[in-house]
Amino acid sequence: MDLAGLIAFNVLTGIATLVLITLGLGVIYGMMRIINLAHGEFMMLGAYTAVTASGAGVNIWVAMLILPPLVVGAIGLVLERTVIRFLYGRMMDTMLATWGVSLGLIGLVTTLYGNVVRGVSTPVGSIDIGRYGASLYSLVIMATALGALAAMFGLLRFTKFGLILRATMQNPRMAAALGVQPNRIYMATFALGAALAGLAGGVLAPISGVSPAMGAAYIARAFITVLGGGPAIVTGTGLASGLFGTINELVSFKTTPVIGDVALLVAAILLIRVLPQGITGRYLRRSL
Amino acid sequence: MTIPLSSAPWRSAAGFLATLALGLVILFGAPRTLDTFGLVQWTGFAALAMFGLSQGFIWGFAGVMSFGQAAFLGLGGYAYAVSVINIGDSTVPVLLAIAVPMLFAAILGYFMFYGRISDAYIGVITLTVSVILFQLVNATSGSQYRIGTAELGGFNGIPAIPALNAPGFPDEPLDNEGIWYAAMGALVLVYVLLRAVLASRFGRVVVAIRENETRAQLIGYDPRLYKLLAFMIAAGVAGLAGCLYANWGGFISPTVFGLSMSAQVIIYVLVGGLGTLVGPMLGAVLIQALIIAAGSQSLLDSNLGLGLVLDGFVLLVPQGLVPVIRTLGLRLLQRRAPRPGPADGAAGLATERAR
Asked: What are the transmembrane regions (chain A) (predicted)?
C-alpha cells in the first residue's frame, strides 16, 4: 500500500514535470505551428538564471519562480526580433533557425560559464509516505505545473489578449483585417513560450544538474508530448502529459529511466500512427 | 534542332562528369600528395561527405526533413563495430552496417509516412529518435551490456575496432592508405549510384512527390511508399558513412548519435546547397575544415560557431553555396553569349530556388 502510494506520487510528479517542460513548447507550436528547437536551451538559460541569482544572494523562491521567466522571456523577445521574424511562412527555415539558436546558446553559455555542472540546493525537505520518504519539492513542481496550466487557461479564455491570440491562431489574415498585427502577436507568443521554458528551467534547476547541454535531457520528452497532445495548448499538453507521464514513470520504476524514455518514444510513435494530429487533433478539437 | 549547351540536361551531365572526374582525381591524387596525417584527415572528410550525401538526398530530393540522420550514422557505426569484433572478417559487417540502419528506417518510416504526419512532425520524431538512441547507448556501460564478445562500453564507446580487410583475409587489415581508397572509392561509388537512382524512374517520382505530393498521388503514385524507400536508401548511405567513420578512428562512441552530429549534417547540406549532391559533400569538407581550424583556437566555442553559420545561411543564403555559384556562373555565360529573352533566365532562377 505504501509502495502504491509512492508510485502514485511519483507518477504525479512525472506528469507535472512533463507539463512544465512542454507548456512553453506547446504555446509556440499551438500558436505558430513552429517547433522551437531551442526550447531545451531556453530551459537551460532559466536554470542558469536561477543558479546565478541564488548565488548572488537573491531569495531562492524569487530566483526560481520569478526571475527565470522574466529573463528568458526577454531573451526570447530579442531572438524573435533579430532572427525568427524574418522567416515566418517558411516553417522549415524557422525550425532550422531555432536549431541554430540552440547551438549558439549552448556555445555561448559554455564560453561564459565553462562546461561544468552546477546546482542549487532544494529549498524544502522531505515528506513520509508510509514507510517511504519522498521529496517535498515534488509538491512545488506539481503546484507550479498546475499554476502554469491554470494561468494559461485563464489567459486564453478570459482576457482580451487571449481572445486576440486565439483569433490570430485561427485566421491570421482575418485578424489582421480587423486591426490586429499578427507579427506583434507572434512576437508576444514567442516571448511567452520562452518565458514558460525559463520557468521550467528555474523550477527544475534544484533537481537536475545545471550544465550548458542540460537541455538535451529534456527536449526528447517535451517534443514527444507536444506531438502527442496536438494543437490545443492547455488540453493537449495536459492530456498528453498525463498519458506519457504515467507510461514513463511506470516503466522507469520497473526498469531504468532510459528505458522509460524509450517506452515513451515507442508509445508516441504508435500513437501518431493512429492519431497523426495528436490527441486534440481528433478529440476535443474545440478545446483550448 | 540542337539542344543549347547551357540547357538543363547538358548542365546536369556536365556537372556529373566534372564531379566524377574531381572525385577520381582526389581519390588517386591524395595518397601521392598528402602525408599520412593529411590522408587520415581526408579519410574522415570522405566519411562525413558520405554522411552529407545521405542528408542531401533525403532532404534535397525527397523533401523529407530528417533532423535525426545521425541515428543511422550511429547505427551503421555500431553495427560494424559490434559485428566485426564478433566475426573478424569485415565483409559481412560492412553489409550489416548498411542493412541494420535500413531496417530501422523501414520500421520507423512505416509509422511516420503511413501515419501521414506533417513535415514538422517528421523532423521532430527523427530528432527525438536520435536523442533517445544516444541516451540508450550512453547507458550501456558495464560488462553486462555486450553483444557476443563486443562490450558496448556506454559513454566510453568501443575502442580498437578492427579495420577493414580484403574479403576473406581477416588477418591482413588495410593500412591508412588502403582505408583511404576504401572510403573515397565508396564515396565516389555512392555518388554515382545516387545519381543513377535520381535519373531512374523511381528517382523522378521521388522528386515529383517533393514538388507536389497531392498531384503525384492523383497521377497514381503512392507517396508513402516512395518516401519510405527513399528514407531507407538515405539510411543505408548514412550507415555506410558510419562504418567508414568507425574505421577512420578505429573507435566509436555515443556522440555519433548526438544532436550536434545531426545539426552538423544539416549544416553541410544547407551550406553546400539543398537539391544538389555535390553541395553536401563540399559543405562537409568545408565545415569540417572550419571545425578543425576552430579547434586549434579557444576564442570561439565550436557550437557557437556552428549556430552562427546555421542562422547566417538560413537568413542570408538559404539556397546554399553551390546553387548560388552555379547561378552566378550561368549569368556570366549568358552575358557572354546572349540567349533569347530575359524570361528564360528568370524561370531558370525560379526553378533553381524551388530546388
From this structure: 6-30, 95-114, 134-156, 185-207, 219-246, 258-279
